[in-house]
């Protein structure tokens, strides 16, 4: 069993390039997400997206660049291409259903992906999934399942995990 005793830090920023008074259903965003796990490694994901929203349906196509390094790599960090898609349908004012997928290319600088099965879940992977989001005043929930497609364990089947997230605003 692997225990994580350390500090984790996450930062994200988004730039919406849509004009303030635009009447178009299309808009673009730029997003940078970075996460650092003390003693384990870090990643930085730079993503550009094309978004289309109409009524209750929202479709997002993204492409970007991933920088990732772990304690298992004493060389330069790995650099990967990232392609993603997200489809979300708002069921009502509180709930929405979503489908998503992400593909990571092989490393641009020939760095190997890490081979620790316990760390696969905390770093970006090629995966597909679905879930349900809910919002109750200042409480947000997100419950879903995803399947990691590029596992490094040479398993005969992909790894499927259940995810849940609860955040409370103040």
Question: Can you give me a brief rundown of this structure?
Answer:
With 170 residues, the chain is mostly beta strands. The protein is built from no helices and nine strands.
Number of strands: 9
Shape descriptor reads: globular
Describe the main β-sheet briefly: 9 strands, antiparallel
> Roughly what is the average pLDDT, rounded to an integer?
82
Describe the structure.
The protein has one domain. It has no helices and 9 strands. Strands 1-2-3-4-5-6-7-8-9 form a 9-stranded antiparallel sheet, with no helix packed on it. It has 170 residues and is an all-beta fold. It is 0% helix and 60% strand. This is Outer membrane protein beta-barrel domain-containing protein.
Write out key terms for the chains shown.
170 residues, mainly beta, 9-stranded antiparallel sheet, 60% strand, globular
Write the layout of secondary structure elements.
Blueprint: E1 8-16, E2 26-37, E3 41-54, E4 57-70, E5 78-90, E6 95-104, E7 127-136, E8 139-148, E9 159-168
Antiparallel strand pairs: 1-2, 2-3, 3-4, 4-5, 5-6, 6-7, 7-8, 8-9
């Amino acid at each position: 069993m692997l225990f994580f005793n350390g500090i984790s830090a996450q930062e994200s920023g988004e730039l919406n390039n849509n004009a303030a008074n635009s009447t178009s259903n299309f808009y673009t965003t730029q997003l940078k997400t970075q996460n650092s796990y003390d003693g384990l490694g870090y990643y930085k994901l730079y993503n550009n997206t094309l978004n289309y929203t109409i009524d209750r349906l929202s479709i997002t196509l993204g492409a970007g660049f991933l920088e990732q390094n772990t304690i298992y790599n004493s060389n330069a960090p790995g650099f990967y291409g990232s392609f993603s898609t997200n489809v979300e349908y708002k069921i009502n004012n509180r709930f929405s259903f979503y489908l998503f997928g992400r593909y990571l290319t092989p490393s641009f600088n020939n760095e190997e992906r890490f081979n620790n099965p316990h760390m696969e879940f905390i770093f970006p992977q090629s995966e597909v999934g679905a879930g349900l989001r809910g919002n109750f005043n200042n409480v947000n929930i997100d419950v879903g399942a995803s399947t990691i497609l590029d596992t490094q364990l040479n398993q005969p089947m992909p790894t499927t995990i259940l995810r849940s997230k609860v955040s409370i605003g103040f």
